[in-house]
Amino acid sequence: AKSCEMGGYTSGNALRGEDLHVRKSVDELVEIDKMADKADAKEVEAAAAPVEEKKEEAVEEKKEEEKPAEPAAAAEEEVVAVDPRVKKQVEFYFSDSNLPKDKFLLSKTKDNKEGWVDIALLTSFKRMREFNATVAGVVAAAKESEFLAIDDEGKKIRRTTDLPDSDLTLGRSIKAGKFPLDTTIDALEEFFSKQGKVLSVRLIKVETKGSKEGTFEGDAYIEFGTKDEAEKICASEIEHSGEKLSMVMKQEYLKEVEAKKKEETSRPNTRKRAREGEDGEEKGDKEKKAKTDGDDKKKGDRDKKDGNYISYPKGVFVKVDGIGDGASMPTIKDLFTKYGNVKFVEFKEGEKVACVRYETPEEATEAVKGEQESKSEICGVVPEVTLITGEEEDAKLEDIKQRQLQKMSRGGRGGG
After folding, report:
1. Is pLDDT larger for residue 155 or for residue 334?
2. What is the CA radius of gyration of the chain?
3. Cα–Cα dist 122/118, whole Å
4. For the whole model, what pTM was predicted?
5. Largest Cα–Cα distance in the chain?
6. CA 92 to chain centre
7. DSSP label at residue 304
8. Is the pLDDT of residue 356 over 80?
9. CA angle at residue 55 from 50 to 61, to 5 degrees?
10. Which contiguous run of DSSP H or E holds residue 244?
11. CB 335 within 8 A of CB 323
């Protein structure tokens, strides 16, 4: 009986051991299943990752496509082609041939220490308007020049070399003619370029009433590279339009003109005019004063009005500064008469400055504007033409007043 119990006990323990073994096997299987599930999940996650990455890349690419394209650095600045006509004209404005004589442009270079000039001003000049020049076009042209510079903002221009101490153009220029009346500056430059290096061409225009720029009558000044070159060409025989040209050195021509003027003023029964009167008669000439028109005398009587002087409006005085040697009062008056009724010219021979008084401020303004554009020469020099204003104008009016009162106290007519 004991042995049965013992056998039974032993047998029961064996069963429990088997049962434990079975449970252990089941647990291992469960753990394996869990590991398998995790492995599968990782494989699925790993497989899904490239798909997500591709989606993200596609979204990024789409975003990049939607972004506006940024301009290339080289395209940020507009490329402007250089117009050779504009480059040539701008270089002429600042050249030794023009700038020292161009009182208006020269005054602009003196507005600041560096000599900067607004490019917009240059593009407003008549010649530049003919070329449809723009600020950008001038900037492009100046960048290719050897003696011009542009400021950082691209709005101003200046010359980089010093101006000559004396007029270099006179000795290397000739006067030539006669050319057809429809001749242009460009045509003459092309013609004489076959003879030598042409620096400038100026059409000689005769002042005529009703014309702001004067009338071209067939003569021109041609400036060459050197004096020797000019003299050689002047001494040669050249034909234009089938006719032999008459040529003389400009310096000699101006001397001849001056000599003729002196000869005319030295003839018997003639007087050199020192002042131009209200109506153009010569002051100091008793014979001519005796022949003064009766209506003019009546007007003078009315002007006096019991001793009251004639009051002139402001804005009628024009200053002409920088007149060439040999100029005379008739020359100055003839030049400015085309802009209106010149009432008075104050000028003494040998001086460089004259004062022209117009009847109205509008005429004076037109004269200043016209001469700043046309740049007419007076005896080989382009003077600076400006309105007289401020204290200088007040002093001028007071001087006229005092002179009128003195004349009226002596029984003379007003004016001045």
Report:
1. 155
2. 47
3. 7
4. 0.48
5. 188
6. 12
7. H
8. yes
9. 120
10. strand 243-244
11. no
